[in-house]
Specification:
The protein has 76 residues and is of the alpha+beta class. The protein has one domain. Helix content is 36%, strand content 32%. A four-stranded antiparallel beta sheet has the order 1-2-3-4. Strand 1 and strand 2 form a beta hairpin. The longest helix is centred in the first third of the chain and has 13 residues. It is globular. The protein starts with a helix and ends with a helix.
């Protein structure tokens, strides 16, 4: 019984994905600056503009995907 419980515990821990696996980024270079927007996998996004960065939420993306949002930034 203890072995079964230990095995199930290890299996459940090993089957979880990490935040690193969820972190996806899109980037582009605009006229004067480069942009990178990363989805942190928890509804929070990190937008890097050159050397500066800021935190965005899903609402800030106004229904756009990460790629669409970055492409709009680069088009400006």
């Amino acid at each position: 019984m203890k072995r079964t419980l230990l095995f199930l515990t290890i299996l459940s821990i090993g089957g979880c994905s990490t935040d690193e696996e969820k972190n996806t980024c899109e980037s582009c270079a605009g006229t004067n600056i480069s942009y990178e927007l990363c989805d942190n996998g928890n509804g929070i996004y990190t937008l890097s503009k050159g050397e500066a960065s800021q935190i965005l939420t899903q609402a800030d993306l106004i229904g756009l995907s990460v790629k669409e949002y970055v492409n709009i930034l680069c088009a400006e």
